[in-house]
Design brief:
There is one protein chain. By secondary structure, this protein is an alpha/beta fold. It is 30% helix and 18% strand. The strands form 6 sheets. It has a 6-stranded mixed beta barrel. Strands 3-2-1-5-6 form a 5-stranded parallel beta sheet. Strand 19 and strand 20 form a beta hairpin. Helix 3 packs across helix 7. The chain is globular and about 65 Å long. The protein starts with 12 loop residues before the first strand and ends with a strand.
C-alpha cells in the first residue's frame, strides 16, 4: 500500500475494485463506511459481484470478469479526452505519458462497453468523478491480481492514479489489501525468489557480497529461483524434495488434482505447520510449529506497519518456533545458524535491510513504525512517494487489453470464480477447527444468479454439478442477485468441496499467479 488504510478518511473519492472488502477486510471496510457516511466521500465500486459496499456506493459498475485493463483504459480515455488529467503533476513527476495517451485513444466508452458490459454513460460518470474530486484513493485485492493479466491490471491502476495526480498524497494512492496477517512481512523478509530482505535483488553482486559476509559464507547464488506456482509443477521432475511451511497448496492452488499428483511424485516432502493440513497429510515428515501466540517476533501488516508479537503461552507438545526449527535443520546440514532469540534476528534485519534499519524492538515497544524507516531517528513513512516517485519519475505503461486464458463456449457456457467468505479464512486451517464459525457457514455454497437458476430449474438448497475441463464438483446452490448472469461463485475454504480442483492453472507470465478468478464451466442440476 502506498498509503495507510486510515487515509480513506481523508479521501474525497474511494475507488474499490476486485475486493469484497466487507467480507475479507472488515476493519478497513469500517473506515470506508465512516469515510462515506460521515465524511461525505464518494464511493465507486467496480466489481462483477454485488458486494455489500454497493449498498453505500455512489456508482457501481459491473464489469465482465477479466476485463479490468479495458475499463481502466476507458477511464483514462475519458479523463484525457475531457482534459481532466493532472497536467503539472504529469509533467513534473512522470514519464511515458504520450505513449499512454496513444494506447488509450481507442478505448472509447462505447468500445469499452462492448468488452466489459459497462454502459458507456456509467463509465464516463465514474471517470469524471474519479478525476475531478481529489484526493482519490484506489483499493484492490485478488479480484485484480488473480488473472493471467494480473500484473497488467496493477500497472494500469497505477497509471490511472498518476494520471489524476493521486500518488504521493495523503488520502490518495494505490492500495492492495493483503489477505493474510504477515504476507507483507514475508515478502519484506525475502520470501520471494528474486530478492533478499527489503527487496534487494539477488542478481546484484554488491548485495550478494554483503549478505555472504554477514552469513559467513564465501558466495551466494545469483540465480533467481522459482515461484510457488513454478515449484509445484516441477515437483517429481527437476525438484525431488520440497519443504512447505505455513501453506496448504492442496486447497489453495489451482488445478488441485495436478497439485496432488505433483506433490505425490516427490522423493521427499516436509511440511511445517500448526495443524495437520490436507498438504501435511501427504508429507513424509511433519514439523509441528508454534502459532502466533506462542512466539516472539513481528508482523508487517497490509499498510507496511511493523507490529510486535509477544509470546502469550507455551507451545504444546514438541512444537517449536519456526526460526528454531529452521536453525536446527541448518545445523544438522552443516551450517551453524545460531540466534539467541527473536530479538537477535531483528538485529540482523536492522543491519542488512535498509528499509527496516531503524525499526528496533526498543522503538516498537514505544511507538508504531512504518517502513521505510532507515535510521533510529527516522519517524517512518506512512505515505510513499510524497517527495518524488521512488524510481525517479513515475512510469506510465501503455497496456492493451488481453482476454482471459479460458472463456465460456458452447460446451462450458458459464464462468466460475472463486474467493473467500466473511466467516472463514483461506483454506480453513484455523477457522474451521472450531464450531462457532462452522455453525455460521457450515459448507460451501455456489452462488448462482436468479435467472440462471430458473433456467437450470434449481432453487436454494438443491445441489448442482459444476464441471470444468479439469474436474467436477457437487455443491449446494444458493440463488441470489450477488453474482451476475452466467457466473457462479464458490468459496475455496472447504476440503470437502475443493473448488480449486476445477480452476485453471494458467499463470500470469510475470507474477506467476494462477487465474483463479475465471474459468469456463458447465452447471447442471444434480440428480
Amino acid at each position: 500500500m502506498t498509503n495507510p488504510y486510515q487515509d480513506v478518511l481523508k479521501s474525497k473519492v474511494i475507488l474499490i475494485t476486485g475486493t469484497n472488502t466487507t467480507a475479507n477486510h472488515p476493519i478497513i471496510a469500517n473506515y470506508i463506511h465512516e469515510a462515506v457516511t460521515k465524511n461525505g466521500a464518494k464511493l465507486i465500486v467496480i466489481d462483477p459481484r454485488r458486494i455489500k459496499l454497493v449498498d453505500i456506493a455512489h456508482l457501481w459498475l459491473r464489469q465482465k470478469i477479466g476485463t479490468d485493463v479495458a475499463w481502466i483504459n476507458g477511464f483514462m480515455n475519458v479523463i484525457i479526452k475531457e482534459n481532466l488529467q493532472a497536467k503539472s503533476y504529469i509533467e513534473e513527476r512522470t514519464e511515458g505519458y504520450e505513449e499512454l495517451k496513444k494506447c488509450v485513444a481507442k478505448y472509447t466508452p462505447e468500445y469499452v462497453s462492448g468488452i466489459t458490459g459497462i454502459p458507456a454513460k456509467d463509465l464516463v460518470a465514474a471517470a469524471r468523478l474519479f478525476a475531478k474530486e481529489k484526493p482519490a484513493s484506489i483499493l484492490y485485492t485478488m479480484g485484480i491480481t488473480q488473472h493471467t493479466t494480473g500484473t497488467d491490471n496493477v500497472k494500469s491502476l497505477a497509471s490511472l492514479s498518476m494520471l489524476s495526480g493521486n500518488i504521493g498524497v495523503a488520502g490518495g494512492g494505490v492500495n492492495p489489501l493483503r489477505g493474510q496477517n504477515n504476507v507483507q512481512g514475508a515478502c519484506d523478509m525475502g520470501g520471494l525468489p528474486n530478492v533478499f530482505s527489503g527487496y534487494q535483488v539477488v542478481t546484484n553482486e554488491e548485495i550478494r557480497s554483503k549478505f555472504a559476509k554477514a552469513w559467513q559464507v564465501k558466495t551466494l547464488p545469483e540465480k533467481v529461483g522459482m515461484t510457488v506456482t513454478e515449484m509445484v509443477p516441477a515437483s517429481g521432475k527437476s525438484i525431488k524434495a520440497l519443504y512447505i511451511m505455513g501453506e496448504n497448496p492442496m486447497l489453495s492452488d489451482a488445478d488441485a488434482h495436478h497439485v496432488e499428483k505433483s506433490l505425490s511424485a516427490l522423493d521427499f516432502l516436509v511440511v511445517q505447520d500448526i495443524f495437520l493440513t490436507e498438504t501435511a497429510k501427504l508429507a513424509d515428515v511433519v514439523l509441528p510449529s508454534a502459532c502466533f501466540a506462542e512466539k516472539e517476533g513481528t508482523f508487517s501488516n497490509t499498510e507496511r506497519k511493523v507490529l510486535r508479537v509477544r509470546k502469550a503461552l507455551d507451545a504444546p507438545g514438541e512444537a517449536l518456533e519456526d526460526h528454531r526449527i529452521i536453525a536446527g535443520i541448518a545445523k544438522r546440514m552443516g551450517y551453524e545458524m545460531d540466534y539467541a532469540d527473536a530479538s537477535a534476528i531483528m538485529d540482523e534485519i536492522n543491519a542488512l535491510t535498509p528499509s527496516y534499519g531503524g525499526i528496533t524492538y526498543d522503538r516498537l515497544d514505544k511507538e508504531s513504525l512504518t517502513w521505510p524507516c532507515p535510521t533510529p531517528d527516522h519517524s517512518g513513512t506512512p505515505v510513499l512517494h510524497i517527495h518524488g516517485i521512488a524510481r525517479g519519475k513515475g512510469l506510465f505503461v501503455p497496456i492493451e487489453y488481453k482476454a482471459p486464458a479460458e472463456l465460456p463456449d458452447a460446451e462450458y457456457p458459464f464462468v466460475l470464480t472463486t474467493g473467500r467468505v466473511h466467516q472463514h479464512y483461506h483454506t480453513g486451517t484455523m477457522s474451521r477447527k472450531g464450531t462457532a464459525l462452522n455453525r455460521l457457514y457450515p459448507e460451501a455454497l455456489a452462488e448462482i444468479n436468479v435467472e440462471d437458476a430458473k433456467a437450470l430449474n434449481v432453487v436454494s438448497g438443491e445441489y448442482v454439478n459444476i464441471v470444468s475441463r479439469r474436474g467436477a464438483l457437487r455443491v449446494k446452490a444458493t440463488v441470489c442477485d450477488v453474482t451476475d448472469r452466467g457466473v457462479a461463485f464458490v468459496p475455496f475454504h472447504f476440503f470437502e468441496t475443493a473448488v480449486n480442483e476445477l480452476t485453471n492453472g494458467a499463470l500470469d507470465p510475470i507474477s506467476k499467479i494462477p487465474e483463479y478468478k475465471i474459468c469456463a464451466v458447465r452447471i447442471e442440476k444434480a440428480a
